[in-house]
Amino acid sequence: MDKEIVVAIAIGLGLSASCGFRVFVPMLTASIAAKAGIFPVQEGFEWLAGWPAIISFGTATIIEILAYYIPFLDNLLDTITTPLAVGSGTLLLTSVIPIDNDFLKWAAGFLFGGGTAATIQGGTVLTRLASTKMTAGTGNAVLATGEHAAAFGTSALSLFVPLVIAALVVVLAAYFLHRFGKKIFAMNCRT
């Protein structure tokens, strides 16, 4: 496999995982990086490097971050951001994959980018639900701060050490699937 493809997929995978922590942080990071020439967007995704995208994602990032500090609204946001995380993860991975076939590009983006974002988002949703249950929502602000840091850190590191972040994403996704997959399976078996 070509080194360019491996690095592009690693960047997209890292940014997709970051969508599981916060939807708009990796979108903003990708837009700024594309504007700076660091994020290798493919044909048709040049709009990510435009000022309208940067301003829109910047505004959405600020609103999303602030909203996660409001108890119980954060749980409601998880309901809204879960499908958005899948969409953002799909878009970010698809935007960097250097494949000419649109169907294959979007299918890979959805399966790997959207799937990674969904896995990480699922882990954060379940963690927030547990925090809400144990602390009546008072511990969620600490959790939100950690998620913000993870979103910014994962997004930035995905651009500069993409292979390391991609490997960590795979390990983290496997952990979440192992840890929470058993619980979800057990809950479904009881019903």
Q: Output the number of helix runs.
A: 7
Write down the Rg.
16 Å
Number of domains: 1
- Sequence stretches where pLDDT stays below 50 over 5 or more residues: none
Percent strand: under 5%
**Which sequence of SSEs, written as H and E, runs from N to C?**
HHHHHHH
Largest pleated sheet: none
- Gross morphology: globular
Q: What is the residue-averaged pLDDT?
A: 90
Q: State the end-to-end distance.
A: 45 Å
The share of residues in helices is over 70%
Q: Could you say which structural class the secondary elements and strand pairing correspond to? A: mainly alpha
Total strands: the figure is 0
Can you walk me through this structure?
With 191 residues, the chain is mainly α. The chain has one domain. Helices cover 81% and strands 0% of the residues. The chain has helices at 3-19, 24-36, 51-67, 73-96, 102-135, 140-160, 162-190. The radius of gyration is 16 Å and the shape is globular. The model has no long low-confidence stretch (mean pLDDT 90).
List keywords for this structure.
mainly alpha, 191 residues, globular, 0% strand
